[in-house]
Amino acid sequence: MAASSAEEGRDVRNLLLEDIQSSDDRRIIPEPDARLEQVSEVCAGYRRDDCRNLLRLGTAFFDPNFAPAPGVALPDAAAEEGFVHAIQNQRGDQLRRERSGARGLALQHRAVSWVSANLFDHFTYTVRNGLNRGLRRKGGLGWLPMERETPESRFWKSLDLRGKVVYDVGAFHGLLTIHYARDARAVVAWEPNSRNRRRLMENVNLNLFSNVIVRSYGLSSKVARAEMRFDPLMPGMATVDSGVAGGSEHETIELRTLDGEQGLEPPDLIKIDVEGFELEVLKGAARTLERGPDLFLEMHGADAEDKRRRARAIADHLWTLGYRRIFHVEKAIEITPENSAAASQGHLYARA
């Protein structure tokens, strides 16, 4: 994105971040309390109207205790519905206009994604927060010196993966992949989206992990080729499920079944996050699941009713496979086919 004037011009590479940092990383933000000012300063070299709106609406990500200054009102959901904002990518070759509430995407998440993709996507650094603290990563906002703990992150921190084999189905950029690789004996990651897979492999290689295998296709209930659609601003939501698919970009991918995989150690844990295609992955893994590996699934759907329908189908399927200990990570309750509506959002951890 071009600078609005010579005075406002700022090369993001002048930050205390580098494309390829040395092992003795320099401090990225001088004072933790200045993180918002730091990001605002970075934005000074770009379209001010874009950055102002995006940072204003995404502020809660950086500081959950944020309160607007007196007289400054943040828009509520009703005011945001139908609001059209311009987002110009870093190459300046495309201007996209999107509705803020499109397909239920939280505007806050879109703001954070925009800042991450347009300002920090090419930076390599040592992660300062969360599960991957101390690991190397390219892109994203892991350099912020803060913690934003969630029930999911607490779950992963509590799980002992030492000596285990973990399957990461829908690995995205490999943030969980590299977390698993710290302690697991072996990690197998499936990521069919070529853009996401490149970043996944970069993050694995940055950490010199030799216990990770990356597979370049997706998993399903049968062998096929499919069209994957995604929004370039939210590449983590790329999917082949027509019920939840959205976005202007697409890629033809190969699908296989987990039962058809060869040369892999049997898993102790399978994480599945494939944007609505979870049930199809489970159907293609019947023989693999006979061994009773633990399962971790993220729940998806186009709307509230669709999410409830999918949650019921997954709970029923797990129940028939002998998985009778199904735990909702965020709500800390047990899930059965009878109360499956409670699992329509969040994550499930299932044990046979």
Provide the β-strand percentage band. Answer: 15-25%
> In CATH terms, what is the fold-level topology of the largest domain?
Rossmann fold
Distance between the termini: 51 Å
CATH architecture of the largest domain: 3-Layer(aba) Sandwich
Q: What gyration radius follows from the Cα positions, in whole Å?
A: 21 Å
Largest sheet, spatial ordering of strands: 7-6-5-11-12-15-13-14
Structural class: alpha/beta
**Low-confidence spans:** 1-35, 42-105
- The quaternary state of the protein chains shown equals single chain
Overall, the morphology is globular
Structure at a glance:
The chain has helices at residues 35-43, 48-62, 77-80, 107-119, 151-158, 175-183, 194-206, 278-283, 286-289, 304-320, and strands at residues 84-88, 95-99, 124-126, 136-138, 165-169, 186-190, 212-215, 218-219, 224-230, 249-256, 269-272, 294-298, 325-328, 333-335, 347-351. It is an alpha/beta fold and 352 residues long. The chain folds into two domains: 12-124, no CATH class; 149-351, Vaccinia Virus protein VP39 (Rossmann fold).
Main traits of this protein?
single chain, 352 residues, alpha/beta, Rossmann fold, 2 domains, 8-stranded mixed sheet, 3-stranded mixed sheet, 15 strands, 28% helix, globular, disordered N terminus
